Amino acid sequence: MHRKNHHWTFLLPLSAASIQGRFDNTVIHWYQMKENKPPERLLFFAAGKTTVESGFQGKKYMVDKVSSRNLCILTINDVSPDDAATYYCAYWDPHLDRFFSTGTKLIVSEKGNSKPENSEILQKEHENQLVYVCLFEKFYPEVARVKWIDEAEKEVTENVVKGDVWKFPNEDKYSVSSWLSVPLENKNKKYVCHLEHESGELLLPTHGKYYILNFLLYLLCLYFLYLMIFYFPVKFQK
């Protein structure tokens, strides 16, 4: 989601596996859902033509398809507070199964965005499990996605708990956390906590600076042990 000169662009890829080879012939639907209201179909895109539903301004919306990437792009022009909502793209397959995107929330604000003021990963052993807690504090706006990535650069979906975004009273910035549990025998495996936010992406490795500092401290202890065994005895003998 990008903002430039009062234009918002949504880049929402559809499922390449399910519509590969017939993307150009697929009718794409876009829905708008405002807070405490049911979703409304905003428009549909077929055969290169956009049809906007009555009740919406036709010139305000543009849709493009990028067939090579199975990507459908919605652009909203001249954004106003009334455009604040969550937007979904969808399509129906020949068996009448309906597929919806996860949705993109549009927040209309003059505050801009700010990255987290603090971010960290904590860890604790519990019942033969190693629990990582990933925390991002004080960012704006509140729309954020946190996911865990393994060493193969694949998203981890098992044994993951994603907390809701929250904010403290009398503050206008938000925080979010996520938990990952792994077997204790996997403690040497590396994972990355990945934040996707309007201010940019942020990566926190489980074997980050704290792991490096502990390793350096370990090397320092070995060095002093070496001095105690080999250097100081020779010096005292002289």
TrEMBL record:
The keyword Ion transport does not apply. It is found in: Membrane. GO terms for cellular component: membrane. Pfam families: C1-set, V-set. Its main location: membrane. Keywords: Immunoglobulin domain, Membrane, Receptor, Signal, Transmembrane, Transmembrane helix. The chain crosses the membrane at residues 210-232. Residues 116-199 form the Ig-like domain. Residues 1-21 form the signal peptide. Gene3D superfamilies: Immunoglobulins (2.60.40.10). The keyword Endoplasmic reticulum does not apply. PANTHER family: T CELL RECEPTOR GAMMA CONSTANT 1-RELATED, T-CELL RECEPTOR GAMMA CHAIN. This is Ig-like domain-containing protein.
